Structures are given as structure tokens and as C-alpha cells.
Write the C-alpha cells for this entry.
Amino acid sequence: MQIVLGITGGVAAYKAAELARQLTNQGHRVRCILTEAGARFITPLALSSLTGEPCLGANPDMGEWRANPSVEHIELARWADLVVVAPATANSIGKTANGLAPDLLSTVLLATRAPVLWAPAMNTGMWEHPAVQANLARLRSFGHGVVEPGEGVLACGEEGAGKLADVGAILEAIQMYGTPNLAVLQGRQILVTAGPTREDLDPVRTLSNRSTGAMGLALARAFRDVGARVHLVLGGDLPAPWGVETMRVRSAQDMLAACEARWADCDGLVAAAAVADQRPEHLAAEKVKKTDGPESLVLVRTPDVLATLASKRRPDQWAMGFAAESEKHLDHAKAKLKSKGLDAILVNDIQSGRAFGTQANTLIPITPQGVLPALGPLPKERLAQAVVQWWAHRLDVSDRAQQPGF
Ligand SMILES: Cc1cc2nc3c(=O)[nH]c(=O)nc-3n(C[C@H](O)[C@H](O)[C@H](O)COP(=O)(O)O)c2cc1C
């Protein structure tokens, strides 16, 4: 890709040098633009030496207002396949969110038709300020991506949110914008779980959840469409897709048994099923009669399908989970990613009313590197394709990273 990398005036600007170096090593062409404040933290010489391309910016030597037969900001805006701002100050976010263009970087940001990705970094107070959050929401509404900052000790000495995301997470987010090499998924065996599980109380009653399985089925189809061999373990009532080997299951225990039978033969796991966490302690052989007094139901835990499979995987197998949370969704999902040892988790914010039984949905991917820009809102079929494309990129990059000389 041809990437314009905007570097604005924060202490984390020094990390942009590593980002520029790694992008260049990965075969991208990178042209840096420094803001005037950015140039106080890092030199254009460092950036142009690492990228082999001129570094542009506010300093007259860097040519912002240099007499030029081609109009520089428009040329750059057209040249870019992607514009990344890392680190992005509150000031730079505010300018673009409000259509202001007082310097080269902000002008390119308004002029470009390429996708734009922001990696904010700032003091926690600034990050949590409603004005900054409103500006970010505005950028997201333009279709711009945001790599969420992490938490930690900041340069100002405070501890909290606002630390520039790891370079690895920014690189992963950038990969999401390239043309995917879908061939990496061809012939791969992928175990997909989808739908709700059902835990019976008696011959007529059951405990379940509101998942339909539509997202998991869309994922099964999307992996099938790029040539993967999909083994689908399906709960619920939706029809199985063609071209996919499907095993129908009812309870969490059935789902685990079906998955364990296939897991050793698979390259990866996409665990999209909404597995019931509890089941009634006793399954009554006959329909339980109603009584007049208060009634209670004793529940016990079901097996954790995802954690069990993830714990049994070989180093060459990958595991992707899903999290549907109604509050603190990113924190809960990060904890789930870590405790279950997953390669990625895709977070559904069910409080926003999108997820179960709806057509359009948004998923936020989290990997051990960090929180990546949201996929969507998109109809579930398109969203599933976006997940597959993102994952193909990730597999491709990690395959290439293992080759000598990468
Ligand atoms: C030492 C120092 C560190 C700064 N760090 C940050 C930062 O991390 N994030 C931020 O938003 N602003 C930071 N600022 C403030 C910005 O540099 C200031 O808002 C500037 O106008 C940003 O200009 P730019 O967005 O054009 O680069 C810092 C300022 C100083 C003096």
C-alpha cells in the first residue's frame, strides 16, 4: 500500500519511527507528514531515512509551502491508499472532526478519498474529555477507523487511558485496509460453532438464549466462499448452509463433544455460538407440575466449549471467540481473550440493541496486541466477509513473518 503517515505533537511521536520502519519493511511505501508540533518531538531526517521517502511538513525545508508545480497536499491525498495519524493529538482529531485544515496534514486529511485511521495518544483527562470523545465519534461517523489507546503510565506521570496503542496493534489495524490474500484460507479446515445451545428442564421446557445463529452461519458461508473446508457445529433452528459439513447439536455438552471430535483435524476455530453457561441440575423425566408456592431452579455450570478447545490446541492452530456484553464490553472481552488464551475476540455490544436477531451489526476485534478499529455497522453477510478478509490478512502476515528474510 501507499501510506501517508501523519505524526502530530505528542511524546509518543518517537514510536512513529518504529511504525514507519516496520511498514517499510513489510513492503509498503510510506510518506510521513510532520505537524509543526510533531517536528519538535522527532526529526524529518529520522523518518525519511527509515522510509526512503521525503518527509513533509510545516518546516519550510520540508516543503509545506514550497513553490511546487503540482499542488502538494492534493497530490499526497490522491497518492495515499491509506492515511494513518499516529500519534494523533486531541488537537489534530478536533481539527479534522470539524473540517479545519490549517496545515499540510489536516489539509490532506480533508482532501483524501482514501480511508483514514487514527491512533490517538494523550493524557487521560484529555482522552476522557467529552469534546475529544465527541470528535472521535464524529470521525467514526465519517467511516474513519480508530485504534483505541491502551492504559498505562503516561509521559505526564498519570496512570490511565490514553497511551498510544502498541505498534503491533497499529500495524494489525493497517493490515485491515489492504487487499487481502484470500488464498491463505484455501483448503484450510475451520471449525465454526453457531447458534444457541438448549438445556432441557423436562420433556417440554428448556433454558436457552436469544441468539439465532445468523452471525455464525454468515461466518461459515464466508469462510466456505474463500475455499476453506468448514465444519459447522450448529445449535438452534436455522437451516444449515450448503457446502458445509454440519453437525446439529442441542446442549453445551453435545456441542463440546461434536467439536472435540473434529478439532484435531482443523487449522482454526471460530466460536460464534452462544453457549448456555448453566443448565438445570436435574433433568426431569416427566413434565414438572406447577405448584402454588414459590419455585426455584438449581443451576450448574455447563462445560466451557471455547476454553476447553483453546486449551487443547496445538501451536499451529488458532482460535477466535466472540463476546456479547451488555456493559464494560471491551474490558470484559479483553479479560476473556486472556483467560481463554485466544488469538482474537470479536466484541458485540449488545446494549446498543444490535446483535441478536438484527440485520446490521458492528464487531470490535481485539487481539493480544490491542483493540482494533470496529468492523461495521454492516449487514451480517458483509460483516462476516469483513471478518474473513481481516483474518486472511493476519494469517498471511504471520505466515510471511515465519519465512526466512522477512
Ligand atoms: C511535552 C508535550 C507533550 C504533549 N503531548 C501531547 C499528547 O500526547 N497528546 C496531545 O493530544 N497533545 C499533546 N501535547 C499538546 C500538543 O503538542 C498541542 O496541542 C499541539 O498544538 C498539537 O499540534 P498538532 O496537533 O498540530 O501536532 C503536548 C505538548 C507538549 C509540550
Summary: The chain has a mean pLDDT of 89. The chain has two domains: 2-175, 182-285+296-392. The pocket of flavin mononucleotide is lined by residues 8-12, 35, 37-38, 89-92, 121-122, 126 (CB under 6 Å).
